[in-house]
Amino acid sequence: EGVLGKVDYLEHISPKRMLLFHLTEKNMHVIDINMENDVDLTTSEGFQWLRENLMDDAVEFLQANKTYSEDKNLDKFELIKQGAVITKGDLFRFFNDLVN
Length: 100
What we know:
The protein is built from 3 helices and 5 strands, in the order βββαβαβα. By secondary structure, the chain is α+β, with helices and mostly antiparallel strands.
């Protein structure tokens, strides 16, 4: 259990995609933001462009809920191993309020 049991939010940001995870007791809620242009979300300029152009046709928002496997903490660990970082959930809450 340990540290992973206390993780509620993860983020994985790549140049063209932002995956925001809210890890609840029963499942993972995922907000998936895809860029269909040359904006790089890993730069401060790219992130600023996204904030100013959220409704642009080049920005695609997807949402999903995913149930955990038998080992919830292993699922969290796999996401971290793939590059996700533990956060306080500010970005998730911002985009969740925007799309819901």
